[in-house]
Amino acid sequence: MVHKLWEKKGEKLLKDVELFETGSDIELDGKFAQDDIMGSIAHGYMLSKIGILSSEEFKDAQKGLLEILKLIETGKEKLEFGDEDIHTKVENLLTERAGQVGKKIHTGRSRNDQVLVDMRLYAKRKLLNIWGEHLDLIDELLLNAQKYTSAPMPGYTHMQKAMPSSAGMWFGSFAESLMDSLVTLKAAYELNDQCPLGSAAAYGTTLPLDRELTARLLGFKKVQSNALYSQNSRGKIESVILFALVQQLFDISKLATDVLLFTTSEFQFFKVDDCLCTGSSIMPQKKNVDLAELLRSKVHVMESYLSQVFNGTANLPSGYNRDFQDTKKPFIEGLELAEQSLRVSYLLVHHLTPNEAALKKAMTPELYATAAAYDLVQKGVPFREAYQQIGLHLDELQKCDADEMLKKSTHLGGTGNLLIDKRLQELEKERAQYVAEHRRFTNAMNALETLTY
Amino acid sequence: MVHKLWEKKGEKLLKDVELFETGSDIELDGKFAQDDIMGSIAHGYMLSKIGILSSEEFKDAQKGLLEILKLIETGKEKLEFGDEDIHTKVENLLTERAGQVGKKIHTGRSRNDQVLVDMRLYAKRKLLNIWGEHLDLIDELLLNAQKYTSAPMPGYTHMQKAMPSSAGMWFGSFAESLMDSLVTLKAAYELNDQCPLGSAAAYGTTLPLDRELTARLLGFKKVQSNALYSQNSRGKIESVILFALVQQLFDISKLATDVLLFTTSEFQFFKVDDCLCTGSSIMPQKKNVDLAELLRSKVHVMESYLSQVFNGTANLPSGYNRDFQDTKKPFIEGLELAEQSLRVSYLLVHHLTPNEAALKKAMTPELYATAAAYDLVQKGVPFREAYQQIGLHLDELQKCDADEMLKKSTHLGGTGNLLIDKRLQELEKERAQYVAEHRRFTNAMNALETLTY
Amino acid sequence: MVHKLWEKKGEKLLKDVELFETGSDIELDGKFAQDDIMGSIAHGYMLSKIGILSSEEFKDAQKGLLEILKLIETGKEKLEFGDEDIHTKVENLLTERAGQVGKKIHTGRSRNDQVLVDMRLYAKRKLLNIWGEHLDLIDELLLNAQKYTSAPMPGYTHMQKAMPSSAGMWFGSFAESLMDSLVTLKAAYELNDQCPLGSAAAYGTTLPLDRELTARLLGFKKVQSNALYSQNSRGKIESVILFALVQQLFDISKLATDVLLFTTSEFQFFKVDDCLCTGSSIMPQKKNVDLAELLRSKVHVMESYLSQVFNGTANLPSGYNRDFQDTKKPFIEGLELAEQSLRVSYLLVHHLTPNEAALKKAMTPELYATAAAYDLVQKGVPFREAYQQIGLHLDELQKCDADEMLKKSTHLGGTGNLLIDKRLQELEKERAQYVAEHRRFTNAMNALETLTY
Amino acid sequence: MVHKLWEKKGEKLLKDVELFETGSDIELDGKFAQDDIMGSIAHGYMLSKIGILSSEEFKDAQKGLLEILKLIETGKEKLEFGDEDIHTKVENLLTERAGQVGKKIHTGRSRNDQVLVDMRLYAKRKLLNIWGEHLDLIDELLLNAQKYTSAPMPGYTHMQKAMPSSAGMWFGSFAESLMDSLVTLKAAYELNDQCPLGSAAAYGTTLPLDRELTARLLGFKKVQSNALYSQNSRGKIESVILFALVQQLFDISKLATDVLLFTTSEFQFFKVDDCLCTGSSIMPQKKNVDLAELLRSKVHVMESYLSQVFNGTANLPSGYNRDFQDTKKPFIEGLELAEQSLRVSYLLVHHLTPNEAALKKAMTPELYATAAAYDLVQKGVPFREAYQQIGLHLDELQKCDADEMLKKSTHLGGTGNLLIDKRLQELEKERAQYVAEHRRFTNAMNALETLTY
Fold this sequence. Notes:
homotetramer, 453 residues, mainly alpha, two-stranded parallel sheet, 17 helices, elongated
């Protein structure tokens, strides 16, 4: 256990209190090791540029920090109870290894802006993974939409049979929903992409820090300017990010809810491959799609992370408040959950097959009532009268050729005009944007390791 | 009371049930009258273009609908218990006034896509007001930030005095926070800006609807393509909008929390004009800033609207479900609350004056401890040692010239370099974008009234 | 518009601000008229007992207050924008009608404790209605459980067929769930049943108020003692009440979810009477159980009321804060919603009929796999081996006599031993407790009208 | 890794999916080891009584299970990825150690009722700790209330000075709030105190299980009767428990909020002992009450656990759904958090000292305005006139003898009549009830280890 930065003389925090205050946080802080060290390298380089470190000192710091990173990544150094946090741990280790420069590296910053930078970098790494998984899931949905464009499927409203639809329309609906969720995801990415380093405890410093330099080195799009706002954005930007993840899980949850309904033995519209199913400890016959149940549930898990971060930071006075610490756990868990959920959602869609025979059988005559009314409309009967006329003779409705019927809905977004190709083109554009952003960030991170004069 | 569209023979809904199902909804639907009628004009025009209405019929419909709108706006027609909803009411009134075309106007749509269009148009109108108020609030904050750039003020962390700050930094922090909230607001506006008309009950129709035409007439940026997704986006897009409003109130709530703390008789950092204060029924001496208390609270009101919409629609199967109806009330109330809250927040900021004497008096020596450490740093002492040295001699710290101290923080975003002018320039760009969008929408709405062949 | 109690000289609140601060509150306050006036009568009587009012003055006040109540109830006096609140309105009206005593009636209290009393009395009235509806719903469920005890029905886990169950077990499960919800409801009733009157603004007064007397007159079980706690319980007790209502809607929502699933054309397990169904504007064939959809949704509406009240009051400093005002609307709407939802839930259960033929047909062989394993167990095969053996020969399972199978589950709570009679007896005891409490409260209220020396 | 109970032939769950499904659950399940094994001993004993196990087999099972418990408690057996859950792990270990009886122990139960029993027993253990800590915290608050009964302290409304109060009233208010929170805590304890064992997968079994025997052996107050309700109560009873914990943290959060306000250098009303304070990495002078900040925050953490459990289970169809699994983590974390928070809250209260000099100094004249009005009232001036008269001459108000003033508020719950002794007596009764319940449960658990014929 290393000593705390602020401990003097014989002061000691009660152990129960320390446990309460830092317990699980220590473990979480470990996830930021890479981000913390990259932040310190950039900060150190900037300090050397404004004359607070010599170029030699910077090189020692860089070397020492990269070694410490390796020690942590290989498990040779570990955060433990009593270590306070990752920042203190790294500072102390650096002082042990590289001497004086360890005592200088914290110049011009506070743990307040340091943890902010760490969380932004961590979030960026995770969001890039999530963004990629998100695009893959859309891709898989669109491929299924294309493959099953002409597979008839009853459309439901109020959980009752309503009008003819298709498996293609069903797959496609989730793809478009996720396309819209990209808008919130990218807005969240953008808000996260600003560098708080140099805001210090929330009020800046009297040192001539070059904040634009550190922002650039760390791959941020801009500096988060007003120093107090940097702190006040804690909870705020995390909320925007978590809300974007909630949106993704909203889409996934609806998909999972449908899958569970449509795979009941009463519906049998879809089949989920055995490699995704589990059994029962008491009933020998059971085959359950637990995966879809857990995906249905995750939207609530994610939403509780959002509300935890949000409610815990709303109503706080300006400036840093320790309450912020409680945002870390739900934020980290949320980012990890989204990444994992998107990946297994891809697997669910990949291993989901329409049961075309059952779907066709389910295309019963009442589904065509509206189309029958429209036939009358096209003969000049006002719709409301046609509607009433059909309503009085529902028993005369006949089963139609479902395939033909799908093709008759030719307007934009109808079963006969789903525009999947156009969606695939849009997806390619999205992917190009993603790849460019991914490269930009990765390059910045790599450059930090070899930064030199 | 008009008859319900689907009522036949002697079927009657139990009165208790009807009350439960439509109660407050009828009143809310009245707010959509304008939107519903504009939607019907656009839809009718399109129907005439694809040959379902004659051009005469369209003109009759347009005339009749505009008259009905006037009747509703002047209170001569009112939605009442038993009317089911605004759509049925208008259709029935139109049939009364214009005959056959009333029975034809619903051709090719469902109340499902109709209410969606209404809500999108209503949201647009409200969001444009909100967007404007949002910009005004930023403006007022920046003007104050500029005015009080050099007014010293203690900066707090953990609610304890930390480092020197300024009233300018404090005002500016909220301006920047609201600048970031514009990103979520505009993303929400964009997602709302797609036209669901023509998706019908969720599965399109067998009629050759020209969805691009109606979208264009109604001023939408694009068609919401996949018909099923249009319905599945209920709850989703409302959530994105409400979350953007939650973000605004998050900023406002923090401002209000600070105002309440800083206007206590113990702090006395700010004064709120009497025209915003209220008294007590029992204590003759009281002067309370109730406005700030209610603004502190509203973030939770808004968040509950969000959670109501969100949780009520997550986990629903695909397609229309009546649960959607419960999204209307929180959605409408949320939009109205945001508009009102932004306006009075402007008033609060406008009538808020720093008490410069009290602020200066509060600039006690301990605020300069870090600056003192940095002085040692600039003499070559490693920061961690400087920090410890100062820590051991806190009682020797001296009151500094606060004005001078503020100027010494020259890095980007520090008290001496708040960049308010740059922010004001950015605001002007934002305002130009807003004005253009406002004009685009207003023009589209006006054009519908005079649409002709 | 009457003048505000604290207005002096030319002070005026900005109109936008007043609108923001009291807008919908005025309308809500009207709901407390009866409670406010009963509170004032009790308070006045106590003041006369401690010598602040003469007995004549009390009689004038009592007479005047009862007249004012009648005027409000018959709509001859109305709260309007500008009236501030019900308390000010009534005080001013009383002064107009009864002179001096109007200026004395507020002695020894604050609007802070007055609104608390009003809300407690209002809540009590509503909770008594809710409690009664709650018992009726359990009753109807138990009667159905009894009637359909031997109607076989597949039991599901993971939404897949699992084991034999019965319609009786299904109805009974909701009855027992609601029995448990009574525990939280009664705990909430108990916490609400304490009198805050006399706590004044939150710190009591220097007058020798007899708080036990007013508590007794108003039918409260006890005085809420510590004056500061009375205020601090705002939000807290409302939350406990709203949570109890959330519990009820949790039960109802699950019932509604099942009804919607089991009335799909794919399941057809239950039929809902036409008097509860609605149609579609576009599809002539539709018959939807909208009622169940809205009941499924209401749990989220209620939960958002709870979160609004809860989050809006958590983290407030001690004592009255104006934020409390925002608890009124969700609290009132929550109580009204619960009452209404319970009533229509009763109707839903009343008009719900198992389709016994469809249920029997659905009793397919795989439901008996576990019973088959148990047959082997009873022949001495260890369960895990029996389970595996059956699992390998699922295709040999046979359709059993479902009626016989139900009877074979004889353990407590099994299909053959549901103990409905015992539940009905427990319900009778609950009803007796309810009736006694209802009478106690009604008697107290009536006595206030005729209170004399 | 042991094999899964339902795995046959070559079926294999995809690894990504298995990770997603069981990841952190495995770790959580370890917390139930003791509960799972006690449940199995009771179940085994019952099976021997109804002839499914021989008495020898029961003894082998009991011995084996207790050994397995010891192995797990000492870390010699550990749940790992691939183990599915604690139930499967224990069953497999028992089969390894004790042979045939391992294959029989699952007779007549499902993992569905088994995990329910585990969670109920776990919750009981934790709730008993929490209940005890809760009483200790009240005790400490009452002792402080008693000690500082006559220490004057300004009372606030709207965060502005309002009327005279005392440190005793302040401490006492939290004690009474927590007394009320005991009502919800005990209601939650009661609902948790019913035994679901024997409900199996949700539909009971065809075996003659003696459910009353197992309930009694495990120390439950009653059997949870209807088998389906047992499953349907998942999420419900956990919610009731978590809500009770939310109530506790509501009280604690308000206390912490006050502490943070009252320990600012502007107020200085209280002092927190250094053993609870922490420092800053950048500002040498800082001394922060982080503990209070984190306690202020925890109410939101707890509330998010509640909403996660609640929203994740509302709207699910009847019977077991895998979504239930996601209730475990927030439920366990919530119980642990409450226990820990109560303990450190005790420390906070214990180490909190009123700064009597500062408090006295803060008793400024405006606090006495209402008392001055009451002086006029007692001379016959109607209150409303007295109020106005004082309001016009606020500057003539004089500083009073605060000690005297406190004594003048003699009504029940006023500063001169706080009834702390009565509260202490009530607390003793509560403690006696707690101790009895604690003993009852501990005895039941101990008896299971030595259960014999």
